[in-house]
Hints:
Elements (H helix, E strand, L loop, with lengths): L2 H21 L29 E6 H5 L8 H4 L5 E4 L9 E4 L10 E2 L2 E4 L2 E2 L6 E2 L9 E8 L12 E7 L7 E9 L3 E12 L2 E12 L8 E14 L3 E16 L6 H6 L6 H5 L3 E16 L4 E17 L16 E19 L2 E19 L2 E2 L6 E2 L5 E23 L2 E18 L11 E19 L2 E12 L3 H4 L19 E14 L2 E13 L2 E7 L2 E6 L2 E16 L2 E14 L3 E3 L10 E3 L11 E10 L4 E10 L2 E2 L7 E2 L2 E14 L2 E10 L7 E4 L9 E3 L4 E11 L1
Parallel strand pairs: 5-9
Antiparallel strand pairs: 1-8, 2-3, 4-7, 5-6, 8-9, 10-11, 10-41, 11-12, 12-13, 13-14, 14-15, 15-16, 16-17, 17-18, 18-21, 19-20, 21-22, 22-23, 23-24, 24-25, 25-26, 26-29, 27-28, 29-30, 30-33, 31-32, 33-34, 34-37, 35-36, 37-38, 38-41, 39-40
Amino acid sequence: MPLSDALYSLPLIAATSLATGAAHAQTPTTVTVTPVVITATRTAADPFNLPMAVNVVDADAISEGQLQVNVSESLQRVPGVNAQNRNNYAQDVQLSVRGFGARSSFGVRGIKLYTDGIPASQPDGQGQVSHFSLGSAERIEVLRGPFSALYGNAAGGVIQVFTESGVSPPTVTATVVAGSNGTLRVGLKANGRQGAVGYVAQVDRFETDGPRPHSAAIRLGANAKLDVRLGEATTVTVLGNHVNLPSAQDPLGLTKAEFDANARQVNPLALQFNTRKDVEQTQGGVRVNHKLNAQQAVELVMYTGERAVRQFQAIPVATQTPATFPGGVIDFDRNYYGVDARFVQSGDWGSVAVGVSSDVLNESRRGYQNFVGTGPTAALGVLGALRRDEKNKLTSADGYVQGEWRVLPNASIHAGVRASSVKLKSDDKYIVIGNGNDSGNTRYSATLPTLGASFRVMPALTLYASAGRGIETPTLNELAYRPPGSMPSAGLNLSLLPAKSDSVEVGAKWRRDGVAAELALFDTKTKNEIVVVSNSGGRSAFANTGRTQRRGVELSTRAQLLPGVQWEMAASTLEARYKDGFKTCGAPPCTVPSVLVAAGNRLPGVPDRAAWTELKWTHPSGVYAAAELKYQGRIFANDVGTEWAEAVTLLGARIGVTQQRRGAKWSVFLRGDNLSGKTYAGTVIVNEANRRYYEPAAGRTWLAGASVAITW
């Protein structure tokens, strides 16, 4: 569908949703449509009054009939967010917001991630979501659009998970979920409050055989939150989180021919080199909130953590021969820490928050050959000789101001600015004949302004507009290798510049008598877009191209159609294109990029259209049934636009019951996904050099779960 058609069609759907709201004006309901958000303004606010696209996924949506392992389970309810389970726990969830983050072949880039105010994104903009504890999550907040820039570097969007708070009386909850492909999750959670002290503690074990050979994984997690009220003015919250991924096999992607022949097969190189990944991460933090008086408050967040990763790749032995090649095993240890302090002043006129933040990442990165020995007797997929050894340090120092002014009883202006600075220093410890000293350093800085206004036209309708500027610096991994043809060819790619974006957004929000609808239209223009110019032998090299443009329409609706019948929908279109052409590499080996990427080509990695809808019936007895329909549009796999994953429509359903008996609450459910058993590529590995772009999604799958919560 052309964007011009989408610009007309989605507002028509929105008008239908608004009309639905008017039709139900005489039917009061109990559906909750007034969540309070914090991520958007750093103070508690009603999103209906904000000039920005912000959504909340509540605890029921996160937990009901879900595995509670991947954020992709919940974020399909948010328009503009592409969150896909790769069914590959060695590579994490594929996550992008309005096209930002789409080029990532592993981890999450271009999106700012938080859990309880603690960054899950490093200063360079790369993050991960594997430690998000969904079993103890109270809500997920998603901020899209210009105001995301107030979170600094790589904030194409902001996703934050909040842990529930301890309440009285104490409750212990046990959960078991099992399903297709050897999937099993067991969890135990304790929640309680004794006077001024509240606590939540959650432990999980998850394991799966995966839908393909060589895709098994085990993941252990723990999450804890302790809050202490020190009088009426002060609250201290202590947070702790641990994740251990002792074994996650990587089946690699498939070529189009392999996918068409048998989408359930594994790439032979994955078995030959036993491709896999193990991760261990522990972090903790303290958050202090103190009210100086009725209008003034201060907040301080301090955190620290460490992360260790070892990943075995499928890189042929001969490729690793040059002294400049870093090997086929990635091995790094990181320790990180940071602080965020802010002062908030509020009153009848509005509010203003002034803050400073600083984050530090120290990384020890090593590379090893993925073999031992030579010739036919060589052992593959094992830790071999050292081929890379460096110390990297990233620091960020930011200051920000964000405020709201209520210029009229029904109108407000929001504005903010953030001064952001990121420094990188790399110290090369691996200096041998043929591989010189690749040490280096660089610095990126930017001033990021935002401005927005909202106007409540009528009690049920708010209109808004906003604009802002954002920055996305290269990550450590993107700086690691220089493009083919560079002189010298080794060392950090310090010529790589940050991408800078200018965004505008207009939207409308409707809320009345149990019906909520939101419509957003956006346009983002980016300069110096960071793109892949070569990807060979496990090494991706990046460069800056000219201009890109992302524009689209997003719509979400939630309504109580009849007593006990609820309908929810999220739909979006995204036209993301290169405005300037550039040259990239073809099949390896590549000495100089020579393949033209034409101006007008679509950015790979994101669907051009996406939609999700759910119809749910709930009986007063606690029995419920729901049906889901999901559409994912075509996803291009490479910049030149010659290969893509086809569009697909999927059907899912779930049934369950929740009962409360004295001091116990229990629930059981059964769900099925991809009920028609379609074979399709759920995600693509963008610009994979060997054209192994396609990551097959799971076929028809079943999941059953039960939980018991005992209160005393």
